[in-house]
């Protein structure tokens, strides 16, 4: 799937640019994208290292297990394939918690660790397991309760009430999470 | 209020983890370094995927194909009472986090954060996430190649998020 979409993006992009006479822009962009991906990695890398370090302390001390115990009734329902007490459950719990508070930077490394752990119980290593996809849906639907970036942007542009959108965000997030999970279930059953 | 609370979240989180670690007699510094070391592998696995995605997406965006689509869809949006200005954001949100954030900035600058467009854009941004980016990162880091229905499920969550954002903002702030 990704193969097709990637090809589609590049072929359409280049052909349209050539037809509309923007070849010079295109040349620039081809080089520019290498730079922006490196910029991105350079930005993510140290933040990831920091949070993975902090999280390792939370894992060793058993704090993470406590968190997953709190969320486990909910997690058991949406991840029926993960054996009870498996470490991936506590990693998923930490990713969800970080996302709820709008800590996107912390959520990503937690999520990556959770994926690694899900991979350890995945039978076909090159194929996504059902739990992985469910976890992905939880992340793409965004379970944010406090959208910190948006609130600060709204403040920056002089909103009279920067936080007025929070409740609407929570409702919309809830809808997309529940809807996403339902569709995930349906698609999982179909195959 | 929420602004102040959110300022406390990260420091308090770190404090709790450290204090609890000391209380449980964990070698906190060694454990931290050990955990941070894991990031090397992750970044190495991630980079080629990220590069590929950014390369493809940027070329596509530069071609302005989306602009042609906007023009075609404009009348339909007017019918549904959804401002066309929001459309670029709806399309780009799952594809590129930085461009949708740039659009949010633009919308705030041109219409103000307290306008209907500003509020709708805020809620869309807040209730969805960059599906392509998460997909690339998460599956790339563990070497999964066959993603099955993951993209469809992820995009479905985004579409549901956008539709509910439109309905909810209309309900709360509509005129």
Strand percent estimate of chain A: under 5%
Beta content of chain B comes to under 5%
Q: What global shape of chain B is seen?
A: globular
**Most extensive protein-chain contact, per-chain counts:** A-B, 110 and 100 residues
Number of strands of chain B: 0
Low-confidence stretches of chain B: none
Number of domains of chain A: 1
Tell me about this structure.
Chain A has 191 residues and is mostly helical. Chain A has one domain (44-190). In chain A, 78% of the residues lie in helices and 0% in strands. Chain A has eight helices and no strands. Chain A has helices at residues 2-19, 23-61, 63-78, 87-100, 104-120, 130-140, 148-156, 166-190. Chain A is globular, with a radius of gyration of 20 Å. Chain A starts with a helix and ends with a helix. The relative contact order of chain A is 0.07. By secondary structure, chain B is mainly alpha-helical. Chain B has one domain (46-173). Helix content of chain B is 81%, strand content 0%. Chain B has eight helices and no strands. In chain B, helix 2 crosses helix 7 (131-142) and helix 5 runs antiparallel to helix 6. Chain B is globular. The interface between A and B is large, with 110 and 100 residues.
Strands, helices and their partners?
The complex is a heterodimer of chains A (191) and B (175).
Chain A: H1 2-19, H2 23-61, H3 63-78, H4 87-100, H5 104-120, H6 130-140, H7 148-156, H8 166-190
Chain B: H1 2-23, H2 28-62, H3 65-79, H4 87-92, H5 97-111, H6 116-127, H7 131-142, H8 150-173
Helix pairs in contact in B: 2-7, 5-6, 6-8
Which descriptors would you attach to this protein?
heterodimer; A: 191 residues; mainly alpha; 8 helices; 78% helix; 0% strand; B: 175 residues; 81% helix
């Amino acid at each position: 799937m990704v193969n097709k979409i990637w090809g589609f993006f590049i072929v359409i992009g280049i052909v349209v640019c050539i037809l509309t006479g923007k070849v010079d822009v295109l040349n620039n962009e081809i080089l520019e994208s290498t730079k922006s991906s490196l910029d991105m990695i350079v930005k993510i890398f140290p933040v990831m290292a920091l949070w993975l370090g902090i999280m390792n302390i939370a894992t060793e001390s058993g704090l993470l297990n406590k968190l997953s115990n709190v969320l486990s009734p909910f997690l058991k329902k949406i991840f029926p394939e993960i054996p009870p007490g498996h470490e991936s459950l506590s990693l998923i719990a930490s990713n969800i918690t970080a996302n709820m508070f709008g800590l996107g930077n912390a959520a990503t490394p937690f999520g990556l660790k959770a994926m690694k752990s899900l991979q350890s119980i995945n039978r076909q290593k090159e194929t996504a397991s059902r739990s992985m996809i469910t976890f992905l849906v939880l992340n793409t639907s965004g379970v944010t309760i406090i959208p910190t970036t948006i609130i600060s942007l709204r403040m920056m542009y002089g909103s009279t009430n920067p936080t007025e959108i929070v409740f609407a965000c929570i409702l919309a997030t809830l809808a997309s999470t529940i809807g996403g999970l339902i569709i995930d279930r349906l698609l999982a059953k179909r195959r | 209020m929420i602004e102040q609370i959110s300022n406390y979240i990260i420091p308090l989180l770190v404090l709790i983890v450290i204090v609890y670690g000391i209380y449980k007699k964990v070698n906190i510094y060694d454990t931290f370094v050990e955990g941070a070391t894991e990031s090397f592998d992750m970044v190495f696995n991630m980079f080629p995927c990220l590069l590929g995605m950014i390369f493809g997406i940027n070329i596509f965006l530069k071609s302005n194909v989306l602009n042609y689509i906007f023009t075609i869809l404009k009348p339909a949006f007017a019918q549904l009472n959804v401002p066309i200005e929001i459309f670029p954001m709806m399309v780009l949100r799952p594809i590129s986090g930085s461009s949708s954030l740039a659009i949010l900035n633009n919308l705030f600058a041109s219409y103000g954060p307290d306008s209907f467009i500003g509020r709708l854009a805020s809620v869309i941004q807040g209730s969805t996430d960059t599906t392509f980016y998460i997909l690339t990162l998460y599956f790339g880091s563990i070497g999964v190649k066959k993603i099955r229905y993951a993209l469809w499920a992820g995009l479905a969550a985004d579409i549901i998020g956008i539709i509910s954002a439109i309905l909810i903002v209309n309900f709360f702030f509509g005129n």
